[in-house]
């Protein structure tokens, strides 16, 4: 039985046990395989059609690595919570953070209107550059220029803040 060029019998008879040997959890192995199959189906990479099994195996390895990293970050975070007592930040630290945020806000407000708009859409709203270009009806090159200008201004203000 084939699905998007993948022999599903191969996926469940060969690839799934391989995943299980690395995760030691049947449910995680199934989750990873199913996530890999979905990513495989959604990708537009031409390698998918040339060597579908190799491409699916690569996706699977990347998903297992991602899962391992997430688990290790979670364990490290839990260990740090257990090792250290949580303390509230000092009033001085909070005042310093508040001042820095106000300065950053002022820097962003001082940017030219279009530059500020592009920066906020990209950095705060997470919109891709090509979508910003379409939304604002400007070229992709202008979006990049606005972002560079904003980042240079912020970097210069950061240097000034650190030097003072």
What is the gist of this entry?
The chain has helices at 8-23, 26-42, 47-50, 52-83, 91-110, 113-124, 129-136, 140-163, and strands at residues 2-3, 6-7. With 164 residues, it is mainly alpha-helical.
List keywords for this structure.
single chain, 164 residues, mainly alpha, Arc Repressor Mutant, subunit A, 2 domains, two-stranded antiparallel sheet, 8 helices
SSE diagram, text form:
Blueprint: E1 2-3, E2 6-7, H1 8-23, H2 26-42, H3 47-50, H4 52-83, H5 91-110, H6 113-124, H7 129-136, H8 140-163
Written description of the protein model:
- This protein has 164 residues and is mainly α.
- It folds into 2 domains: 2-83; 91-163, Arc Repressor Mutant, subunit A (Orthogonal Bundle).
- The chain is 81% helix and 2% strand.
- It has helices spanning 8-23, 26-42, 47-50, 52-83, 91-110, 113-124, 129-136, 140-163, and strands at residues 2-3, 6-7.
- Strands 1-2 form a two-stranded antiparallel sheet.
- α2 crosses α4 and α5 packs antiparallel against α8.
- The termini are far apart.
- The model has no long low-confidence stretch (mean pLDDT 86).
Overall body shape: flat
- Taken as a percent bin, the fraction of beta residues is under 5%
- Number of structurally distinct domains: 2
Task: Name the average pLDDT.
Answer: 86
Kindly report the spatial arrangement of strands forming the biggest sheet: 1-2
Which structural category do the helix and sheet elements fall into? Answer: mainly alpha
Q: Tell me how many strands there are.
A: 2
Span between N and C termini? Answer: 68 Å
Helix-strand pattern, N to C? EEHHHHHHHH
Helical residue percent band? over 70%
The unreliable regions are none
Question: What is the overall number of helices?
Answer: 8
- What Rg do the Cα atoms give? 24 Å
The largest sheet, given as strand count, sense and whether it forms a barrel, is: 2 strands, antiparallel
């Amino acid at each position: 039985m084939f699905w998007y060029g993948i022999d599903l019998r191969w996926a469940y008879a060969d690839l799934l046990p391989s995943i299980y040997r690395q995760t030691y959890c049947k449910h995680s192995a199934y989750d990873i395989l199913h996530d890999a199959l979905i990513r495989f189906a959604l990708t537009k990479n031409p390698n998918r059609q040339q060597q579908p099994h190799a491409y699916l195996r690569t996706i699977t390895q990347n998903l297992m690595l991602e899962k391992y990293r997430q688990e290790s970050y979670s364990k490290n975070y839990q260990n740090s919570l257990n090792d250290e007592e949580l303390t509230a930040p000092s009033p001085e630290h909070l005042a310093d953070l508040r001042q820095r945020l106000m300065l950053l806000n002022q820097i962003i407000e001082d940017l030219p209107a279009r530059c500020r708009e592009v920066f906020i859409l990209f950095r705060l709203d997470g919109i891709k550059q090509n979508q910003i270009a379409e939304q604002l009806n400007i070229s992709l090159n202008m979006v990049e220029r606005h972002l560079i200008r904003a980042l240079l201004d912020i970097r210069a203000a950061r240097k000034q803040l650190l030097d003072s």
